[in-house]
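Tokens in:
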């Protein structure tokens, strides 16, 4: 593999589910907001325009929280691998990676490091089936190529 080979991987199924869910959540909260008018019941309060806007705002915040799950990605080249999960990001040279794992029954692939740590790669999800398998194979090829160049040098 040459230095210009770059592997970019993102989950597919979870992105579709998250975008659909986020849109549905904003729609539901907007519909609920339109129904908020008049008195609150037998009390002295009544719903105001601010209550409706707050309900829509809550829907938007919930949608943004759901969209965090579309963030994961993996990029790798001959020098190393960059993993971006839902919250944290990592940039590792291939020298610290012992193996690229995708265990049977595991929800996603992971990197086994030489310090016996496992770094999950949420971007390579079992739900994506062949896409995830192809991604793991591409990462393993890059890892083997880097190990071969280290053994020669």
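Residues out:
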């Amino acid at each position: 593999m040459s230095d210009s080979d770059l592997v970019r991987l993102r989950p597919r199924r979870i992105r579709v589910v998250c975008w659909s869910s986020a849109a549905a959540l904003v729609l539901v909260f907007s519909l609920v907001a339109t129904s908020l008018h008049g008195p609150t019941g037998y009390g002295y309060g009544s719903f105001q325009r601010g209550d409706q806007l707050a309900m829509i705002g809550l829907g938007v915040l919930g949608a943004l929280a759901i969209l965090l799950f579309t963030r994961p990605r993996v990029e790798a080249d001959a020098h190393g691998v960059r993993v971006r999960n839902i919250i944290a990001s990592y940039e590792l040279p291939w020298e610290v990676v012992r193996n690229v794992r995708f265990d049977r029954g595991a929800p996603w692939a992971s990197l086994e490091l030489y310090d016996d740590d496992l770094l999950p790669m949420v971007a390579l999800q079992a739900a994506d089936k062949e896409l995830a398998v192809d991604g793991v194979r591409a990462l393993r090829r890059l890892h083997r190529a880097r190990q071969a160049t280290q053994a020669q040098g």
